[in-house]
């Protein structure tokens, strides 16, 4: 478009007067015809005329906006500027507040002082069978039982009376229902199997104003992948479920998901996308706090698949052990790698007290070499690993059952011995073997 053509639209008649419009107005050229979509006195502009047009006229306008060439000051607009003007006229984002309009809601508030802030979603990682679910059970108890300290170390939760009354939800992706139930009871929580609206766990000294812990067992609900939020139908279902819970019990204050690796069927390349959808779900249903758990690599302590899996998390909590990682007697350690101003915790030993509770031991006293697992420890681990992988509908290849590195040869040898004794059986699959438990009455 040349300058002469553009300038023809600079002046216009209004109520018997010739007026000059503001500079830098937009024109659209389509199939040899020039259109003037901007507002001016006596002409509301295309952006405000949609409601007055017939369906045919609206379709014609959309065709012009889609295929026309946009001009300003006789210069053709760039693709980005064209998209902007098109969206402005169509009102594509008219129902949304500007991304620049957000303001900080206030000072950062600690949720668990020294560990966790309100409105944040860290992720807990650890190697398989290190005891993440026991750690999560202790955490859940600290969120529900008044005055309870997580790991008998951190200060009790910092919540208002309104927040204290909101429920906590724990999604159990891979532990057998009975095992998870026993682990939660062992923390001191009480279970109300006739709870209203659903069964829940609570503070045994609850005054009627405390939080309820609702637990979802995915194995009973159809399998771990029924919480794969990267699938839209699954996301929609859990948005519905959580909003339904909010109607009868109040919006949850915290959502913990124990077992993202099982949920994604060990496809750790999808950690980042799943976490992004998890955050979107929390915001959609007004849940301010969240914590998913997943598996870390055996050597580096980061979530499996490294940096790719770390997308978006508000810091990483890690619970690991001295090698071999499957040794139930190995020393456990807890640490955090935070974002921004969240507290940082150096690797600190976690011990089991005489009462069976996990405790953070900041003294860091050296208790010497961790005891090596016994033969029965190894057999118990292998049985549990096969059962867990089967429950999560994951393949039980030898490497998945026995691990990698130094532990592999030792545990693979024990597994073959168990097969000879009729405790497990194997079947060829692909280039390897998959393993199954033999029912005791059939062994």
Structural class: alpha/beta
Q: What percent of residues are in strands?
A: 15-25%
**What is the general shape?**
elongated
Work out the helicity level. 25-40%
Contiguous low-pLDDT stretches (5 residues minimum) are 304-309, 365-370
Tell me what you see in this structure.
The protein has helices spanning 3-7, 55-67, 79-90, 132-144, 161-164, 177-186, 218-221, 232-249, 260-263, 271-284, 375-391, 398-402, 406-420; strands at 11-14, 17-20, 26-30, 33-35, 69-72, 75-76, 110-112, 116-117, 123-126, 168-172, 190-192, 200-202, 213-217, 254-258, 289-295, 316-321, 332-337, 345-352, 358-360, 424-429, 432-437. The strands form 6 sheets. The protein has a 9-stranded mixed β-sheet with strand order 13-10-14-15-9-16-17-18-19, sandwiched between helices. The protein has a 4-stranded antiparallel β-sheet with strand order 4-3-5-6, with helices on one face. A two-stranded antiparallel sheet has the order 1-2. α11 (375-391) packs across α13 (406-420). With 443 residues, the chain is α/β, with parallel strands linked by helices. The radius of gyration is 30 Å and the shape is elongated. A hairpin with a 2-residue loop joins β3 (26-30) and β4 (33-35).
Task: Supply the key terms.
443 residues, alpha/beta, nine-stranded mixed beta sheet, four-stranded antiparallel beta sheet, 13 helices, 21 strands, 30% helix
SSE map:
Blueprint (H helix, E strand, L loop, with lengths): L2 H5 L3 E4 L2 E4 L5 E5 L2 E3 L19 H13 L1 E4 L2 E2 L2 H12 L19 E3 L3 E2 L5 E4 L5 H13 L16 H4 L3 E5 L4 H10 L3 E3 L7 E3 L10 E5 H4 L10 H18 L4 E5 L1 H4 L7 H14 L4 E7 L20 E6 L10 E6 L7 E8 L5 E3 L14 H17 L6 H5 L3 H15 L3 E6 L2 E6 L6
Parallel strand pairs: 9-15, 9-16, 10-13, 10-14, 14-15
Antiparallel strand pairs: 1-2, 3-4, 3-5, 5-6, 7-8, 11-12, 16-17, 17-18, 18-19, 20-21
